[in-house]
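Posting for a labmate who doesn't have an account.
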Amino acid sequence: MQRIICLVIITIILSPVSGLAQTRKRTAAKSTRTTTAPTGEAERAGAARVGEQIKSLTKFIYLLGGIAGGLEAVDAATQRNEASAAIIDQAKQNKITLRASIRNVKDGLDKLEIDFRATPELQRYYIKLAGVAAGAAKAEDLAAANQFDKAGRALLDVVNHLTDVLLAMR
């Protein structure tokens, strides 16, 4: 009896496993989604402008992170009366320059929105684009309140918004 049980167990272990597997062949599902590039020259140019905005904004945000950290350190040193007058003056000048840069970003995004709204081939994407300038305006307000880190985060939201527009245009 034990011999028979051992033979059955050995037979099961040594039997091909593929016999127990499903025999139905699976085929890869073909995607019905087609990706189309912007068809007209105006759409290609619009997509290129959105892409350039994304590139320049990400570079700006990267640089802003380092500058914002330095400005916060100077502000903390100033509160502890440990910063020299030259450092404080330089920090004030950097803040002015940074605020002006964020204002320029907002102006560029305003122009982009206006161009999309005014160009018939791009109007269908304007709905997705609308609001990016408002996000930059929020960043400008935060920078005016010396909240440069939060301003950078607001600009990250703008980059995400622009990326969504670019994805819609492809």
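Reply:
Got it, the structure tokens are right above this. The helical segments are 2-14, 41-79, 85-118, 123-129, 132-144, 148-169.
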